[in-house]
Write a structure and sequence with these properties.
Chain B: Pfam families: SoxD. The structure holds two protein chains of two kinds. Chain A has twelve helices and 18 strands. By secondary structure, chain A is an alpha/beta fold. Chain B has a single domain, classed as Folate-binding fold (2-Layer Sandwich), CATH 3.30.2270.10. Chain B is globular and about 40 Å long. In chain B, 9% of the residues lie in helices and 41% in strands. In chain B, a hairpin with a 5-residue loop joins β5 and β6. The longest helix of chain B is centred in the middle third of the chain and has 8 residues. The chains are: A alpha/beta, B mainly beta. At the A-B interface, α8, β15 and α11 of A face α1 of B. Bound molecules: flavin-adenine dinucleotide and zinc ion.
């Protein structure tokens, strides 16, 4: 059982040369049989395991991860957290996540470094200002915080922005969500892992699911690289590999896998204290606590499972950044990487029962599921424990592709990440 | 920058191409008899293979539609084949 982290303990350990710290979670060996099994050790899977134990009191839970915890998109993303979506269903989902994030460090007794530094989306024409006003109105009606910013207000928040009248994307104003921000991605994975492990969850790394056990038409467990594991109920949260797992389970999904890349600059002194996105360039930036500028943009255009990212998109993202912050042209890039994201036609996640009874899905978060981790885990846990949708997850059921009731955020808010 | 082979133009930059969909996802007929599930399969559902994949692409600069066989992990291209029929 992990001891609580506190200032007092930090002090004590400091005096004892830090020899008393224990690993934050148990690296468990697989047992043959569990009540609930979660596939995928990213944020969504780990949060699912945590809430299965915490909210539903399940005792025999395992989580299997083919690599290491947080080695997928959870450890590769640019950590923007926000709920500036257009449709009521989406705001209900993402604002639920944002609220959980607001209390998460305390709930997990683990500092996830959630910094509500606000997020500005900059508009570049009168027409885009109308779009911005429409989204701000929708957000307010849906009950989350949003403000329309003037040009002056945008420049007050980010004075290094390109102020030239000859800019290709001049600043007209923008959308502001003050409760948005960033969190430390690894800490979210590790905090949930520690919380789950403390509540008795077996976290099993280096354990790849290679097949599903099906008896009388129902999923009763999985085959893995470390043997067979039986389970009363199974949930999967494998992001870009959703299609591969679906293939193993004998069904297909409305998901395409793409590489999404990001990069960081060398660390510099504090110069950007919000998250900033340009509608025009699609490039967005924030500054990490270490001082690196964290830079991201759109998807690579070629469907891919190659976790690296192609040069044309990198060039586009960087030229976008130079348009926004000409002075950042002096910076050197330190690292560039990519994750494989699970893109759905309406840019909304899929949460619900799969076509194989006994197997539930949490996926399709595409370019923007880090912000949703607490909610995604909460809702998948609810489904697995009760067999029923939570009111917030119901609209995101797989059946919407048959009924046609899509939640088209690509069209509604036109913002990724 | 990767280069893809257009059957008409030869090797061109990847940015000149647009992905059309998975090969073999033919429009179900007759339309009046297609179930909702059938339309969902046709419009939205994907195999999304990891590894060897057969895809329809268009070379936007010349308008050629073609079948591209490639690997979705390594991005290696195996073959490209025009979808045009010979003129009568
Ligand atoms: C570059 C980039 C920038 C992003 N920026 C943002 C952002 O700013 N804000 C935001 O909200 N979102 C962002 N995202 C999206 C976000 O990272 C993801 O939506 C989110 O992390 C998904 O979490 P997950 O737990 O579902 O997936 P992952 O963290 O990818 O976890 C899935 C896990 O499943 C495991 N797995 C796969 N197959 C198997 C198998 N057969 N057996 C066992 N385990 C398996 C994988 O190894 C992986 O660890 C970004 C993504 C990328 C790549
Ligand atoms: Zn051509």
């Amino acid at each position: 059982m992990a001891k609580d982290y506190s200032t007092l303990r930090l002090l004590r350990e400091g005096l004892r040369g830090h020899t008393g710290w224990q690993p934050a979670w148990r690296d468990a060996e697989p047992k043959g049989d569990y009540d609930a099994l979660v596939i995928g050790g990213g944020g969504h899977g780990l949060a699912t395991a945590y809430y299965l134990a915490k909210n539903h009191g399940l005792k025999r839970i395992a989580l299997v991860e083919k690599g290491w915890l947080g080695g997928g998109n959870t450890g590769r993303n640019t950590t923007a957290i926000r709920s500036n979506y257009f449709y009521p269903e989406s705001v209900a989902l993402y604002d639920f996540a944002l609220k959980l994030y607001e209390g998460l460090s305390r709930d997990l007794n683990y500092n996830i470094m959630f910094s509500q530094r606000g997020l500005a989306v900059v508009a570049h024409s009168e027409a885009e200002m109308e779009m911005a006003a429409r989204i701000v109105n929708a957000m307010q009606i849906n009950g989350t915080d949003a403000e329309l910013l003037s040009r002056e207000q945008v420049l007050e928040k980010a004075p290094l922005l390109n102020q030239s009248d000859r800019a290709r994307y001049p600043i007209y104003g923008g959308i502001w969500q003050g409760r948005a921000g960033t969190a430390r991605h690894d800490a979210v994975a590790w905090g949930y892992a520690r919380g789950a492990s403390t509540l008795g969850v077996d976290i099993i790394q280096n354990c790849e699911v290679t097949g599903f056990l099906v008896e009388q038409g129902r999923c009763v467990g999985v085959e893995t690289s470390r043997g067979t594991i039986r389970a009363g109920v199974t949930g999967m949260a494998v992001a870009g590999h959703s299609g591969v797992l679906a293939g193993l389970a004998g069904f297909r999904l409305p998901i395409r896998s793409f590489a999404l890349q990001a990069m960081v600059s060398e660390p510099v002194k504090p110069c950007l204290d919000t998250v900033l996105l340009y509608m025009g360039t699609g490039t967005y930036l924030s500054q990490s606590d270490k001082g690196e500028l964290v830079i991201g943009g759109g998807l690579d255009r070629v469907l891919s499972y190659g976790q690296r990212g192609n040069p044309p998109l990198q060039e586009q993202v960087i030229s976008g950044m130079l348009e926004m912050f000409p002075s950042f042209g002096q910076l050197k890039l330190l690292r560039q990487w990519a994750g494989i994201v699970d893109v759905v036609p309406d840019s909304s996640p899929i949460i619900g029962p799969s076509p194989l009874p006994g197997l539930f899905i949490n996926g399709g978060w595409g370019t923007g599921g880090f912000k949703a981790i607490p909610a995604g885990g909460w809702l998948l846990a609810h489904l697995m424990a009760t067999g029923e949708h939570h009111e917030i997850s119901r609209p995101f059921d797989l059946s919407r592709f048959t009924t046609g009731r899509l939640i088209d955020e690509a069209a509604g808010s036109a913002i990724a990440h | 920058m990767q280069r893809f082979p257009c059957p008409f133009c030869g090797l061109r930059d990847e940015t000149e191409f647009h992905y059309g969909g998975e090969a073999g996802n033919d429009r179900p007929e007759p339309a009046a008899e297609v179930s909702d599930q059938g339309w969902a399969e046709y419009l939205h559902i994907e195999t999304n293979p990891k590894g060897r994949s057969r895809e329809i692409w268009v070379h936007m600069t010349c308008g050629e539609f073609f079948l591209l066989e490639r690997d979705t992990v390594t991005h290696e291209v195996f073959a490209s084949e025009s979808l045009r029929r010979a003129a009568p």
